[in-house]
TrEMBL record:
Needed co-factor(s): Mg(2+)
Function: Hydrolyzes deoxynucleoside triphosphates (dNTPs) to the corresponding nucleoside monophosphates. Has a strong preference for dCTP and its analogs including 5-iodo-dCTP and 5-methyl-dCTP for which it may even have a higher efficiency. May protect DNA or RNA against the incorporation of these genotoxic nucleotide analogs through their catabolism.
Keywords: Cytoplasm, Hydrolase, Magnesium, Metal-binding
GO BP annotations, alphabetical order: dCTP catabolic process; DNA protection
Membrane spanning residue stretches: none
Chief subcellular location: cytoplasm
InterPro entries to which the protein is assigned, alphabetical: DCTPP
Keyword Hydrolase: yes
This protein's name: dCTP pyrophosphatase 1
Record localization: Cytoplasm, Cytosol
GO MF terms, alphabetically ordered: dCTP diphosphatase activity; magnesium ion binding
Quaternary state and interactors: Homotetramer.
Length: 120
C-alpha cells in the first residue's frame, strides 16, 4: 500500500500509542532508517520539532483557548508540528523500551498523590 491509499486507511482510525508505535517502526523499517533512530537522535529530532512548534506561537502574544482567530492553515500547521513532537516522543519511548501508555498512567497516579484534589 502506498501514499494516499495508506493515508486514507490511517485517517479513519483512532490509533492508540501501541499502534502508532508499530506504524513508526514500519515507517523506519521500510526506509532502512532504523540505523538513524537511536535514542539520542530521536531526542534531538523531537526537540527540533518542539522548536518548530514554538515558532508557531512566537510573537503572537497570548492566544485564546480553541484558537478562535487563527486561520485554518495555521491550525493545520499546528496540528502537524504537534504530531511531529508526539511521533518522535512515541518512537523515542519505544526505542528506549519504555511502555509510554503504562508510564504515563502511572505518572498521573503519582501526580494525584503529590497534588491531592481539593474536592475529594
Ligand atoms: N529520520 C526521520 C525523519 C523524519 N521522520 C518523520 C517523523 C516526523 O513526523 C517527520 C519529520 O519530518 P521532517 O524532518 O521532514 O520535518 P517536518 O515535517 O517538520 O518538515 P520541515 O522541517 O521541512 O517543516 O518525519 C522520521 O521518523 N525519521
Amino acid at each position: 500500500m502506498e501514499g494516499e491509499e495508506k493515508m486514507e486507511t490511517l485517517e479513519k482510525k483512532d490509533l492508540g500509542l501501541k499502534e502508532l508505535s508499530k506504524k513508526l517502526q514500519e515507517f523506519a523499517e521500510e526506509r532502512d532508517w532504523e540505523q538513524y533512530h537511536s535514542p539520542r537522535n530521536l531526542l534531538l529530532a523531537m526537540v527540533g520539532e518542539v522548536g518548530e512548534l514554538s515558532e508557531i506561537f512566537m510573537w503572537r502574544g497570548e492566544v485564546a483557548k480553541g484558537l478562535p482567530n487563527w486561520k485554518e492553515s495555521d491550525k493545520q500547521h499546528l496540528g502537524e508540528e504537534l504530531s511531529d513532537v508526539l511521533l518522535y516522543l512515541i518512537r523515542l519511548a519505544d526505542i528506549c523500551g519504555i511502555d509510554l501508555a503504562d508510564a504515563a498512567t502511572k505518572k498521573i497516579v503519582k501526580n494525584a498523590i503529590k497534588y491531592p484534589s481539593k474536592t475529594a
